[in-house]
């Protein structure tokens, strides 16, 4: 019987997420001592914590018969499959086969394992295409790594392709219209000219002649993880800390579902940090969720092929640049696969 392998395209690679990058997976609070099964990056994965609270990740697939390891029993840095007791270590190596001791499955790395780190209230995973002993460093922007900033993680899941979320953030002009009733995005011109400015890690898409007025620019960067950053000016009633900064990173769950991470940040310390955090929880958070909800409703109601019926103009240069760059990354990955 002849079997036909599915044709892999650059678009298919982008749909499930590029390899050899770090991705945010879920808020830390979603992972406990019991195994948790999550779909991310075109895979079904199992996550759990050991007695020291360290998080591990494997393909949710027992190498014996394919049963979900997430239905098994945690044994420290191992999971015992609930179906036949096969024990798989956090590095993917089978350490014990109770039903057939000494069989060839024991000692083999038969399950894909993934490196994970916890930062800023989230679990991040390195999406390696093959097993690596040591992954590259997880490099996040200053707002998420230095003590002079304080942040809150906003996590949600949206129906639709994660690339529509990328497009939305790379579109500063939509803030002037969709979010015009927001307390922080009611200012500025309804028309604008844009330019693209290259950086060492990516590029900035920004309005010409308008800064610190509205949602005026977006930065996209690749530091081994893809992230986006923008600033929204705050009125004095918004409390201390200057502009409100949003750092975003987005992970495909499947073809029609995206994991959406936004860290809401301000540059504050001392008493200003405490003031900002109280003000955020008591007054600002609900307003920010309302703005995010406007984005969600708009994107979820777009047809999956909406980007095939576009008529783009000057405001969309950033989207075109990002799409082209992502497509080139996917083509490079496809070439590596074909030459392997």
Write up what this structure looks like:
The chain is an alpha+beta fold and 340 residues long. It has 2 domains: 18-126, Rieske Iron-sulfur Protein (3-layer Sandwich), CATH 2.102.10; 142-328, Naphthalene 1,2-dioxygenase Alpha Subunit, Chain A, domain 1 (Alpha-Beta Complex), CATH 3.90.380. Helices cover 22% and strands 30% of the residues. The strands form 4 sheets. The chain has a 7-stranded antiparallel β-sheet with strand order 12-18-17-16-15-14-13, with helices on one face. A 4-stranded antiparallel β-sheet has the order 2-3-4-9, with no helix packed on it. β10 (116-119) and β11 form a beta hairpin. α1 packs across α5. The longest helix has 31 residues, at 270-300. The model has no long low-confidence stretch (mean pLDDT 92).
How would you describe this structure in keywords?
about 350 residues, 7-stranded antiparallel sheet, Rieske Iron-sulfur Protein, 4-stranded antiparallel sheet
Output the helix-strand order. HEEEEEEEEEEEEHHEEEEEEHH
Q: What is the tally of beta strands?
A: 18
User: pLDDT average, as an integer?
Assistant: 92
Distance between the termini: 26 Å
Multimer state: single chain
Low-confidence stretches are none
Q: How many individual helices?
A: 5
Name the CATH class of the largest domain. Alpha Beta
Which structural class matches the secondary elements?
alpha+beta
Strand order of the largest sheet: 12-18-17-16-15-14-13
CATH architecture of the largest domain: Alpha-Beta Complex
Largest sheet, described in full?
7 strands, antiparallel
Rg for CA atoms? 22 Å
The percent range for helix content is: 10-25%
The tally of domains stands at: 2
CATH topology of the largest domain: Naphthalene 1,2-dioxygenase Alpha Subunit, Chain A, domain 1
Domain Rieske: 22-125
GO molecular function: 2 iron, 2 sulfur cluster binding; dioxygenase activity; metal ion binding
Protein name: 3-phenylpropionate dioxygenase
Organism: Pandoraea terrae
